[in-house]
Design a protein that fits this description.
The complex is a heterodimer. Chain A contains 22 helices and five strands. Chain A is mainly α. Among the domains of chain A are: about 300 residues, no CATH class; about 50 residues. In chain A, strands 1-2 form a two-stranded antiparallel ribbon. In chain A, strands 4-5 form a two-stranded antiparallel ribbon. In chain A, strand 1 and strand 2 form a beta hairpin. The termini of chain A are far apart. By secondary structure, chain B is mainly α. In chain B, about 70% of the residues lie in helices and about 0% in strands. In chain B, helix 5 packs parallel to helix 11, helix 9 runs antiparallel to helix 11 and helix 11 packs across helix 12. Chain B starts with a helix and ends with a helix. The chains are: A mainly alpha, B mainly alpha. Chains A and B meet through helix 13, helix 14, helix 15, helix 19 and strand 3 of A and strand 1, helix 5, helix 6, helix 7 and helix 11 of B. Strand 3 of chain A pairs parallel with strand 1 of chain B.
Chain lengths: ~650, ~350
């Protein structure tokens, strides 16, 4: 292809994805309850808009519009290889069609297309690192697909139908367990998360924004569909398991996020945390559904859906921001950044609001969904159910620890990257991003503020989804009367009132200081104990920032640190010493790497045994396999 | 009208009509009128204006115990006024964060104080005074204070920010546990209702011998000790932090605001007094919940509130005098004690002891 058309290619596919997404949003406003089927010679694709898929269609489409606006300008660094926009267009399309598909073959085909396009995008940059990440992602996601397919096959055997219409209430515990395990690999829940922190950072930023803001939520879609639509409503322990796994995943995710120095890796681990929080909500909701505590079910479901939206908005804006940092400073390592706030003023304000939203600071939206989760957890404590009381107390403890640790992690992210002095020349030469890029980030950030301050609209919209999933709604104004089981009007949080109080109090303080204080201002150097310190490396580093917290929670990490220095030189005369620290995932170290070694060992043994030189042994294998086939035929198939 | 409601209920308490008492305790509806709003505002201003006094009182006690002459109790008002008159010196590396962070930190404490009841049952923002909201608003102030610390590119600021989050990560779970166990124990969500509920239960039990389930000795006791430890750590008090020195070994809070000057330093300092007052007020309510429900009880309630605060100030000053500053990595042990105590209180309150 002629390289001079690459820019046109980018504009074409960027605008196409905006238009098609807008088309789908428009389509979703039609009240089309009817199933529509595309018939072909050997396979039928059937689609249906129900409330859940409507919600996800609007969610995916609007987020991808923002990301597409962003990537129309951002993508010019990838012009030499324009397949990015082609792939990302089909990636978005496959996700939109995935959520409206109404039979299992369509679902699986588009699930697979989504996985393949995202795989192609992960390996897009073609470096060794991205190929390794891509392979890991490909492997893990297909293990997930196998489990999902298994559960669908079991559903098919049970109902002998491909259509989702016949699956309502058909899935037993085994089917649900298989599906949830499969989907949680896609969502990056803790024991299965290993692919996520590798795959998200290596992709281009707009793709990471799509993967982290939208794609992981497809797993949430699948789980909601299975648990609340296909599920037969049995097995309360399933909800408790989801709650506990979600809580652990949230805590460990944010603890690992704190240890990272790559901005995108930090955000990727934070995705694991937020998926954990969503899983907690799903667990509480499912448990309450089975145990018939209706109001908790609705509230937790509201927390889940709201957190999906909030996480999508803030995480995609943060990933876009990290992409801009990468584009204009050529590094993602925050130890090499710093002082960007002076060069990228507007971006830093947008990034700050995104960071506040994702670390659940009160007047913003992140706090709202976490607050709902807290309330539903308190509600499940108040039910006095024998098991749930203990697990929800543990979950409250882990959630509060997660909340505080998220604050620490994102203070580190913002403080080290944007504040202070620039640590390298790259950071010093940063410039304000292009206006289209800023607009792409500004829209989700604005929505974050809007949802945080005035959430009544979105809650009444989400009530339709909650009604579809659970058969009830949270009361029209859930802030005024959150009734929980045997409790009175339980908790009150009026976001608009709090926002007004913040605004009024700050303007009052501002006015007071304007009148009663001197307005004199002087710009001077930062105090450095009277030393004339010009070295910007003398600031606090990101590693140093998190080290004291990591030291207390050291059992979560397996870290290897070493200091290299010139051995024969006396202590105070060394010209340099090099400190390296490597933080490894405990799951990777204790589960995945041993499993890989075991697999290689076993295959070697098998290889030796199977490819024997001796003809008698080969004949023996032949005979043995014949007998096994015979046994299978007699006892299982017949 | 709440005031008339209480009168009716007291009459019925006298005749020991059990069911009616239950109904009254359960009836936690908020009907705002202009009286509540006005007294709410007055209450807010009284606490805000008193808070430097409490901090100054603690300081004075400490100095006298060390054998120094000690500052004027009103010294902190004078300091604040003086700081407002001074010019602000901004670092040349400072960004917009340095200009907004002092206000946000100060305002988040103000918003918490708008929610807290101190001596009157209705606070101004009482309708939205959720306990989790209070805990997270405290986290918001920490967030901006640490960002301010990192803004000037000073190594001290980074150190202070790191240590501040270190403390917050450890004390946040116990703070939230304290609040949530209160919420579970009383089955109320707003902090105003929680303490009113305890107050009603206690007054019924002690004055009229009517035992309702809202009376417990164990839970407030455990929560008080737990909150005491948390407030010592959150308010930069001696066994954990020493705000009086500028030595980097002892700096937690002080390192964060090292670069602040003029009015910024003034409102940071005032903010720290407000934060201390927030914690002391919650502690005073756990210790002895007595809030006025109508306008005639306010003088008495105000006197009781100030008395309680003085007792708590003496307690805090006592702890500060007796203990030496501890190593940073011994702090988790102390805070885990606080967490365990609040966990026990949570379990007790689930079981309704």
């Amino acid at each position: 292809m002629n390289p001079k058309y690459n820019g046109i290619y980018r504009y074409f596919f960027g605008c196409l994805s905006i238009l098609i997404s807008a088309l789908f949003i428009g389509l979703s406003f039609y009240d089309s309850k009817q199933e529509f089927i595309i018939k072909s010679s050997f396979i039928n694709f059937s689609f249906r808009f129900d409330a859940l898929s409507l919600f996800f269609v609007i969610f995916i489409s609007s987020l991808s519009i923002f990301i597409s606006i962003f990537s129309i300008k951002y993508g010019d660094i990838y012009d030499k290889k324009p397949s990015l926009f082609f792939y990302s267009f089909f990636f978005i399309m496959s996700m939109i069609i995935l959520v409206i598909s109404n039979d299992m073959l369509t679902f699986l085909i588009f699930w697979e297309l989504m996985s393949i396009f995202s795989f192609l995008l992960v390996i897009y940059e073609g470096s060794e690192e991205s190929r390794r990440a891509g392979f890991l992602y490909f492997l893990m996601t297909h293990i997930g697909t196998i489990l999902i397919t298994t559960s669908f096959i079991m559903l098919y055997l049970k109902t002998s139908s491909l259509s989702f219409d016949y699956y309502k209430g058909a899935a037993g515990i085994m089917i649900l367990a298989a599906a949830i395990t499969g989907f949680s690999i896609k969502a990056g829940i803790m024991p299965f998360h290993t692919w996520l922190p590798y795959a998200h950072p290596v992709a281009p930023a707009n793709i990471s924004a799509i993967m982290s803001g939208i794609m992981v939520n497809m797993a949430i879609y699948g789980i909601l569909k299975f648990l609340f639509v296909f599920g037969s409503g049995s097995g309360p322990f399933l909800g408790i398991i989801l709650l506990v796994i979600g809580a652990l995943s949230a805590l460990l995710g944010i603890m690992y996020a704190m240890a990272q120095k790559d901005i995108k890796k930090l955000l990727a681990f934070s995705t694991i945390e937020n998926m954990g929080i969503i899983f907690m909500g799903i667990g509480v909701s499912y448990w309450a559904k089975v145990e018939n505590f209706k109001s908790i079910e609705y509230l937790a479901m509201l927390a889940v859906l709201l957190h999906v939206v909030n996480h999508g908005l803030s995480k995609s804006s943060l990933f876009m921001g990290s992409g801009l940092i990468d584009k204009y400073t050529h590094t993602r390592n925050m130890e090499k950044l710093g002082g960007l706030s002076k060069k990228m003023g507007q971006l830093s304000v947008l990034f700050l609001i995104g960071v506040m939203s994702i670390s659940a600071m009160p007047p913003l939206n992140g706090f709202l969904s976490e607050w709902y989760l807290y309330i539903s957890l308190i509600g499940s404590v108040l039910t006095n159910n024998l098991y749930m009381v203990y697990f929800s107390v543990i979950a409250i403890a882990l959630l509060s620890l997660t909340g505080a640790a998220a604050g620490a992690a994102f203070t580190k992210l913002f403080g080290i990257t944007f504040l202070g002095k620039p640590r390298t020349e790259n950071a010093e030469n940063a410039v304000e991003p292009h206006v289209i890029e800023r607009i792409g980030i500004a829209i989700p950030v604005f929505l974050c503020i809007f949802i945080g301050i005035y959430p009544y609209r979105i809650i009444s919209a989400l009530n339709a989804v909650i009604f579809y999933l659970t058969g009830g709604t949270v009361s029209s104004n859930p802030f005024s009367a959150v009734r929980i089981i045997n409790a009175r009007p339980f908790s009150l949080y009026a976001p608009a009132l709090i926002a007004i109080a913040f605004a009024a109090a700050s303007s009052a303080v501002f006015l007071y200081l304007k009148i009663f204080s001197s307005g004199k201002k002087r710009i001077f150097e930062t105090w450095a104990c009277g030393l004339d310190e010009k070295n910007s490396k003398a600031q606090y580093s990101g590693g140093g920032f998190s080290s004291s917290i990591m030291k207390v929670f050291s059992s979560f990490y397996s870290s290897v640190s070493e200091i290299n220095f010139e051995k024969d030189v006396k202590k105070y005369f060394r010209t340099k010493s090099v400190y390296t620290e490597e933080i490894n995932d405990i799951f990777e170290k204790y589960i995945y790497i041993p499993a890989e070694k075991l697999y290689l060992k076993l295959s070697e043994i098998f290889n030796k045994a199977a490819n024997s030189e001796n003809i008698n042994v080969s004949l023996g294998y032949l005979f043995l396999s014949l007998i096994v086939c015979f046994i299978i035929y007699i006892f299982i198939i017949r | 009208m709440i005031s008339s409601w209480t009168k009716i209920s007291l009459k019925r308490v006298g005749t020991k009509n059990y069911t009616e008492i239950r109904v009254h305790i359960n009836d936690m509806t908020y009907n705002y009128n202009i009286q509540h709003l006005i007294i709410g505002i007055v209450q807010f201003f009284v606490i805000v204006l008193l808070s430097p006094l409490f901090a100054g009182f603690i300081h004075k006690l400490k100095q006298r115990a060390r054998g120094q002459k000690g500052i004027n109790i009103f010294q902190f008002y004078i300091n604040f006024n003086k700081l407002l008159k001074k010019e602000v010196v901004l670092s040349k590396d400072a960004t917009f964060i340095s200009n907004i962070a002092p206000y946000i930190v100060f305002v988040s404490y103000l918003v918490i104080l708008l929610m807290l009841p101190a001596f009157y049952r209705y606070s101004l923002l009482g309708i939205s005074s959720d306990v989790i909201l209070i805990a997270y608003t405290l986290a918001l102030s920490t967030f901006f204070m640490t960002l301010y610390a990192m803004d000037q590119g000073s190594a001290f600021g980074g150190l202070g920010a790191s240590r501040e989050w270190f403390l917050t990560v450890l004390s946040e779970p116990s703070l939230i546990f304290i609040f949530i166990s209160l919420a579970i124990y009383t089955k109320q969500g707003r902090i105003t209702d929680i303490f009113y509920f305890i107050q009603k239960g206690a007054s019924n039990a002690f004055l009229y011998g009517v035992h309702s389930y809202a009376v417990s000795i164990a839970i407030p006791f455990l929560l008080f000790i737990s909150l005491f430890i948390v407030s010592i750590s959150e308010n930069a008090r001696i066994p954990i932090d020493n705000p009086e020195t500028h030595l980097e070994l002892t700096m937690f809070h002080e390192a964060n605001i090292l670069e602040a000057s003029g009015k910024h330093l003034g409102i940071y300092e005032y903010g720290s007094y407000l934060k201390l007052t927030v914690f002391l007020t919650v502690m005073s309510l756990i210790l002895f919940p007595y809030m006025a429900v109508n306008i005639y009880q306010i003088p008495m309630a105000l006197i009781v509130y100030i008395l309680k605060m003085i007792i708590l100030c003496i307690l805090i000053a006592g702890v500060e005098i007796v203990n030496p500053k501890m190593r940073v990595f011994r702090v988790p042990n102390v805070l885990s004690v606080s967490f365990i105590l609040s966990l026990i209180a949570m379990i007790l309150s689930i079981r309704g002891f």
